[in-house]
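Hello,

I think I submitted the NAP job twice by accident. Can you confirm which output corresponds to this input? Input:
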Amino acid sequence: MTVTAEREKALLESVPTGLLIDGEWRDASSGKTFDVKDPATGKVIASLQDANSDDAMAAFEAAVAAQADWARTPAQERADILRRAYDLINERAEDFALLMTLEMGKPLAEARGEVVYGNGFLRWFSEEATRHYGRTMIMPDGKLRMQVHHKPVGPSLLITPWNFPLAMATRKVGPAVAAGCTMVLKAAKLTPLTTQLFAQVMLEAGLPKGVLNVVSGSSASAISGPILEDPRLRKVSFTGSTPVGVRLMQDAAKNVLRSSMELGGNAPLIVFEDADMDKAVDGAFAAKLRNMGEACTAANRFLVHESVAEEFTRRFVERLEALKPLRGTDPESTLGPIVDEGARDDIHALIEEAVAAGGEILTGGHKIEGDGYFYAPTALKVGKDNPILKKEIFGPVAPIVTFSTEEEAIQMANDTEYGLASYVFTEDNARMHRVTEQIDFGIVGYNVGVVSNPAAPFGGVKQSGLGREGGAEGIAEYTTVQYIGIEDPFAGR
Ligand code: NAP
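Support: Only one job matched these inputs. Its output is below.
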């Protein structure tokens, strides 16, 4: 059923537009606002209060003031709040899905999938909150008793990107709440609405004031800059591009901050000659087209054995050509728009560069005329030296390149400064182990195109970042280890 204009309007009007500071929605001190657009139409759908440095620091002061009490709040109470928020988001799942479609563009069916995935982090970390064990030990020399326990790292700055507006926030807020940290959360200016609604739900779930503060604004560095300068900040967690991550790490170095960096990717998807072609085409399609290709885990390079390249390419191109690029609220839509005009221009420029270097367009390769920022799903046949193989594309564009041997595939897969996700399609289990042990990626999908899961440690190596989100590892990013050396109870006897 098509979503009505009245339903969209009512939902947008229900989203808080202020800055969440110390448990209250406030106006920006400058009195300024900034606009949020629907990428499927290019029209403004909301205006939010525009935080400046003063607002950012007010939010940070609230986080600092709340930290001591929050750290002492029993883990079970923190877990209960997360679980209530999880239930509330489930009740409002359709609102969250529609809001993401309106501000980010993804088809409603995909947005519903993100609600399940993103909300899963709240459930997962509500369970992890009470299971973050320490350890005790009699030292090997018998002299000391050791007690090791985990403490919340302290006030944290969380910065999220626009591509998964709910999941990127819950993946950070969930473990920070579970661990007992207070925080300032800054969402991407293109998609702040989902974060606003999520913060409202956290308040409704009983999160004490000051624990979560949300400041969105038109200038990211005006918000993050002064907070990063303050020595009371103990942690920065960032998801976004590698250049911004590098800059934030440089800033974080001044106060020796704990840093988690989920950065860019350039995922290889390897199809061996013994792959099950149904699995390979399905997996490739999911790994490329999920979120219109605007995912750090998106397959970015299709490395296909020369003996199966023709069949794979024919079947993959057929799937691309069957896509329906329509506004995400249309029930027929299977491909949403690119997030904004600049991002669409960047994708087109990469294709022009690839063609100039000898790449051959098999389908697509152009902007779609009309409202919004749609781009035609594209496949390209390229040589091994094509520059597109070195770039993160962030759009529905698949460069396909052939290889002859397993060694060559491994060498090509590793030929990138990134190391986030990778995908391997083969029916030979021993080959899967040989290949995955030799490729330098934090995540491997074996015969599957989507592997993200709240219970799994998500993160990369090389310039894809530091640290892990989700899994048992996710909460450890927000805690620090304290070792207590206890006197030998038998000393002197
Ligand atoms: P981005 O430009 O780096 O922005 C990410 C966030 O950083 C936004 O909130 C942005 O704010 C903020 N930001 C930008 N410049 C900043 C600065 N100088 N100081 C402080 N904050 C700053 O990335 P994006 O275009 O939103 O997202 C796409 C990138 O994210 C891709 O490279 C993708 O691979 C990566 N990503 C990685 C993961 C992962 O888990 N590894 C997941 C998703 C996305 P404004 O929006 O307000 O400018």
